[in-house]
Description:
- The chain is an alpha/beta fold.
- It contains 14 helices and 16 strands.
- Helix 1 packs across helix 14.
Amino acid sequence: MEILHLGKYYPPEPGGMEAVVKSFAEATAGGLDNYCLVASKVGPTRVERSGGTTIHYLEERGTILLTPILPSLPWVLHRLRKRGRFPVILLHYPNPMAVAALVLSLLFRRKSEQIVLWHHADVLFEERWKKVLYALFRPVEEFLFRRTDAFVAATPHHVSCSDTFRRFADRTAIIPYAIPDAWFEVSDTDRSSAEKARKTMRGNFLLFVGRLVPYKGLETLLRAADRIPCGIAVIGTGPLDGILRKEIAARGLEEKVSLLGRVDDLRPYYLGCEFFVLPSVNMLEGFGIVQIEAMAVGKPVVSSDLPSGVTYVNVHGETGLTFHVGDDAGLAKACNLLLFDTALRERLGSNARKRTFGKFSYTAMRNAAVPFFRVLVGGAAS
């Protein structure tokens, strides 16, 4: 069965939605045939084949509100629909350009496919002009929602916390985000690399991985840092880099907090850290794939208690600890509890690894996705 994905970009372009599209294609290879229609930041329009997945790149002509502008998308999508090749169109949301292109095509050609919308996050804007612009676009989205056959979310929390998609709960399937099964295997080489990471950090350390942007809550982590008696490794890039460096200097944390920038191989740091921390402060943090990357190698997580997928992944007292959003004292307390209680840290880490393989591995994703799409188009589940 062929599935036409409408995404934004495809790895190696960074981004959570991009990582999900690629992991879905890899996890379901052999059960589903995935065709991804995405933007290309560099190079012309082209079609490539990679690892059993077809990636159809459309030349980008700029962006607006983090959305690639693809003048050719409506025509290309309509042409693909006319061929009748795909029984399922899977639109990864939010993605205004893809929504508009599909709606335009539906106005000119009757729907013969099953349309599935994968809700990754609600549309959240702070600036008034963006809210007004989005309000004008909402009727277009509603047109598509009424013609959508099924919805997908990564966790039940994505549904219950969404003002937009809660009303579709009765036709929403849960297909988890996932990491490769091979990620769970730890070799002697991995352990050696972890020791090198610990030497780089001059001993014990806790780890943050993510974009250096406001919603990640790094300000909370810095406020807590002087009460946490170990190093803190911050891996990632983003617009707050300069601001964070000034804040670290102002607080005298240069010997404690290390901004490591982009690191291509994260495994040594996941394996070398005592535990992982995710102090995000709002619902833009819908899941936190970095959590399952750490949990899969046996590391507990300290995360804020956002009611999004963050607290579905990291269960307080089972796979890690949570603290109230923005509460630096609560963050420091949770970190110190794990640092000084080795038995607790090891128990939560072991539980984290088991939960991640059972719910967030490629095996788990494939077992949820393939039967769902086969039944959707009228076939048998297996």
